[in-house]
Structures are given as C-alpha cells and as structure tokens.
Structure prediction request, 163 residues.
Amino acid sequence: MKYLFTCFTALLFTLTAAAQAPETIPGAAMPNAIFYNRDNTPFSTYSIPTGKQSLIIFFDATCGHCQKVVAQMSKRVKELDKVNIYLVSQDEYRSIDYFTSNFGKPLLAKKNTKVVQDRDHVFIMAFHPKQYPALYLYGPDKKLKYASSNEKDVNKFFKLINP
Prediction:
C-alpha cells in the first residue's frame, strides 16, 4: 500500500510539471500565431522583429483588471520606448477601440504600439494564459523573460524593461 501511494505521488508530481505550458517558462521561444490588423490583413508573431524587447498584452475590453493594467502602463508610457507593445484581443474592433481610447490612449500615440485582433481565437492555445489580462515580456531574441496575469506585477515588467 505504501509503495502504491509513493508511485501515485510521484506520478502526480510528474504530471503537474508536464502540464506547465512551455510558453510560460522563461527562455521559451515566442509561439507562432496569426492575428489580424484592422484592415483584415494577417499579422504573425513571426513578423515581430528581433533586436528589441516585445511586450504582448492579451486583454478583454470588459475586464476591469485589463483596464487597470493598461491604464497603469499608459501612465508610464515614456518608460516603454525601448519595447515593442502588442495589444491582442478576441473582441470586435468596436470594443477594442473603446478600450484603447479610454484606457490606453497614450499607448496608441506611440509608434511602437500595435493593436491586433485574435478573431480565430488562437492566442489561448498558443500562449496558454491563465486569465485576463495576460502579459508576456520577450527579450530581443524573442525568448520569454517574464509572464504574468497579476495586475500587481506591472512594476516587475517596468523593472525588466528598464533595468
């Protein structure tokens, strides 16, 4: 009986470790996914350039936590000059526009910000977010540096972006 319990415990720990999404492990490569620009042209994560950090923010327009995080980022927009910012949502552009104009207007004014729609709902399968909002910071080599869904971690992103 003791042997069976030990085997079960070992199996449980193995499955738990294997269940962690590789996309959320630091050092993991950025997943390939296709989103859509406003004009319905595809935008692939493959086309995100190397050589500069990239911050991907997955949000839902009606999510209060998402609104808070993007508003916090917008207040510190000058600190985000060294990073490309990608706002990704499964919402319709009408909702995306409302969200960005009310909570992320300063971000939209930056040339390094891009807003795309995940109309095929591939983000969740590719990036494995735990909840909204999901933030992913990739290094210049497109390897994951940090990921979080906690609105209290916004300062951690700024420390990693501006060491």
